Amino acid sequence: MRLLVNPKWINILCLIILMILSLPPRLWQLSAIPPVIVDEPANLRDINKMIDTPNYYPANFQWDFNQATLVHYPAIAVVKIFSSLDQLLALRLTSVALSLLALIPFFLIIQRYTNTYTAFLSTLLFSFSYYYLQFSRVGWTNIHAITLGLYLLWSLLKTLDKQSKRWLIVAGILAGLTLYTYRGAHIYLLASFVLIAAKILSEHKKRLKMVVFYAIFGVVSLIISTPWLITVFNNWQQYNLRLSVISVSATPLPYHGVYSPGSVWQYQISTVFKSWFLMQSISGDNIENKRYLPLGYPAVNHVVKLLFWAGLIMAVLNFPSYWYWLFILGSGLILGQVLTVDPPNGSRALSILPIIYLLSALPLYALYKRIANKPYLVLAMAIMVSLVAFQDYQFYQYWMSWIEV
């Protein structure tokens, strides 16, 4: 009986149930749906080149010069372990596994601010999000960065709780590895350093001691990322090829029907606000956007939209407790949407999706506290959330019937 009431065992049980529930939607016709997307053959070419080349350097550029070939190692492991599998399926199974692993830190982070019940329901909603499901099922490497980023944030929060060097070293390793991955998730790195700086500044009497302690994080992350940093600095122009293409400051005019730089920035800010705060459906007029978000529909379902609005207000009113998440949301939208062409881009905004669902958990928790002493209402809440999650999966299936890649 002691095991049943131990919070660690309850967490393990919740996570096992979440994994079991989340697996079938990810495996549904995985080898055929969605249709093969352009990045997948390119990733497979890199993977086969690495397999055929002994001692292939993991800090080389991948095919688009945007990430390191280190991101292909999980897929290589799956290809080698399950050698009889079709390689495309193996590539997609890697995304499935990483998307499931990301649910663990997501659940544990939300639990810090709410409770186990709310964390379970919120993680279920996040897992079944049609936006998240798309990145969970295709052989893109974006999901690597989100998974590493969530583990980075969780381990850093553990460090702040316990002032533990062990957790700080883990966070430093994860930060170093995250740097090798998709740049859209580098916002987690920036947020980590901002959180550490805020912690140091808050310790007036032992600030020097805190600087020395948290320097471990910077040193470890620098050691881990040094091979990649050398590659980047030696090939700076190649590394920034993608950035030069997507930067809104370099886009030719006219742009989305506007003809002056001031109008471009006005368009960017208003479009991002409508897309990611009001959650309106805007296409962005870019062929890439059709792969990431269902055109004609918002990024999240209407229930999550309402929860997000309520959670955003709650977070702003309780700014000292939630400023960190608001910082990730705001800076992620500025760097990944306002400053880049054709928002809303679902790839560059993927790093803020966990924050949207984390904020959505706050009103869910407030509702739970009001009905906690009424078991039938608690059960009804779980049923309603489950139905919303299942509806997202049904909508994902519908989206896959007309997706354009």
UniProtKB/TrEMBL annotation:
Coiled coil: none annotated. GO terms for biological process: lipopolysaccharide biosynthetic process. The chain crosses the membrane at residues 89-110, 117-133, 139-157, 164-180, 211-230, 347-368, 375-396. It is found in: Cell membrane. One of its GO terms (cellular component) is plasma membrane. Residues 77-230 form the Glycosyltransferase RgtA/B/C/D-like domain. Its main location: membrane. The keyword Cytoplasm does not apply. It is a multi-pass membrane protein. Keywords: Cell membrane, Glycosyltransferase, Membrane, Transferase, Transmembrane, Transmembrane helix. One of its GO terms (molecular function) is pentosyltransferase activity. Pfam families: PMT_2. This is Glycosyltransferase RgtA/B/C/D-like domain-containing protein. It comes from Candidatus Daviesbacteria bacterium GW2011_GWA2_40_9.
